[in-house]
Amino acid sequence: MSLSIRPLTGDGSPPVQGSYPQAVEVAGATRWLYLSGQIPVAPDGSLSPDFRGQCEQVWDNIETQLTAAGMTLDNLVKVTTFLSDRAHALENREVRVARLAGRQPALTVIVAGIFDEAWLVEIEAVAAA
To answer: Which of 43, 52, 76, 103 is such that its CA lies 20 to 30 A from the CA of 109?
Structure first.
């Protein structure tokens, strides 16, 4: 059986508050990749001062880890985003929607204190192949 990642939203579900499914069904997976929280630090150690730059860097870091495992964004089944402030929610959604380009992994966004106060976003993820 080949890998199948199918977004689901069951009948009777409450409306979603963004561009994500209520659930994701994975069938035929033989490998799983659990990505630790990816931080907004570039390989050279630099940190963008603005949210959009940090968010784009986190997605770059996610793609780097996926590539190391022979995977792509197509393999994502779950994404958990930690925002330092609710004020970043709309910009986070804009970056995520652009980067995922129609892909629909299960999604959770949490507003929380992040380990380093300079980091405005951190994202962990699960992928399957």
So the answer is: 43
